[in-house]
Amino acid sequence: MAILKLVETEQELIGLKQLQTNNLRRLVGEAEAMKEGFVTSEYSLELLKKMHAIYPSIIVKEGDEVVGYTIVTNKAVFGEHPELDHLFNTLDATKYNNVFLKAYPYILIGQVCVGKSHRGQGWVPKMYDFYKSNHAKNYKFLVTDISQANKRSIRMHEKIGFETIGVIEQVGTGWDIVLWDWNK
């Protein structure tokens, strides 16, 4: 039976990293990426440790195996990863309700992924609800970007309540900036 929990051990971080690697767009092939979804950014174990020291990420575990994750991060990791830095800079210059996001306390999804064996079982909405229950008291919004090529992820985020508030050019393609307003 799979369970939802916060990362607690280095072994869980290693499992998260392995699931990330297994789902990288450059490794899964284009046909599978378009059908199943994909992740683009790759984070080192050292960066994951820094992120988790600030806020542990959310994982789905089946026995000892990490089968899903949502990486939690904020500006404390600025300067550690060029794609995250670009995203934070873009978000700060993006307006929501006619106010720049930098004026609001927001938290970022560094990445979300569910392994093939557990897709279609509702884990992404469950992870996001868990995310909200852990962070809504300190942040107004949950923000991320999604490759416009990742239609599966875009549909899932829309169902949860995310709205597109902008577009960013990154890693050679367009990305939708999406925000979940926890006050709505």
List its salient traits.
single chain, 184 residues, alpha+beta, Aminopeptidase, 7-stranded mixed beta sheet, two-stranded antiparallel ribbon, globular
List the helices and strands and how they pair.
Blueprint: E1 2-6, H1 10-22, H2 25-28, H3 30-36, H4 45-54, E2 58-62, E3 65-73, H5 82-92, E4 95-96, E5 99-100, E6 106-114, H6 123-135, E7 141-147, H7 151-160, E8 163-170, E9 173-181
Parallel strand pairs: 6-7
Antiparallel strand pairs: 1-2, 2-3, 3-6, 4-5, 7-9, 8-9
Please, what is the CATH homologous superfamily? Gcn5-related N-acetyltransferase (GNAT)
User: Can you write the helix and strand succession as a string?
Assistant: EHHHHEEHEEEHEHEE
Strand order of the largest sheet: 1-2-3-6-7-9-8
The overall number of domains is 1
Strand content bin: 25-35%
User: Can you name the CATH architecture?
Assistant: 3-Layer(aba) Sandwich
How many distinct beta strands?
A: 9
Mean pLDDT: 90
Quote the CATH topology: Aminopeptidase
Low-confidence stretches: none
Give the class-level CATH name.
Answer: Alpha Beta
Spatial shape: globular
The secondary-structure class comes to alpha+beta
Structure explained in plain terms:
The protein is of the alpha+beta class. The chain has one domain: Gcn5-related N-acetyltransferase (GNAT) (Aminopeptidase). It contains seven helices and nine strands; from the N terminus they run E-H-H-H-H-E-E-H-E-E-E-H-E-H-E-E. Strands 1-2-3-6-7-9-8 form a seven-stranded mixed beta sheet, sandwiched between helices. 36% of the residues are buried. The model has no long low-confidence stretch (mean pLDDT 90).
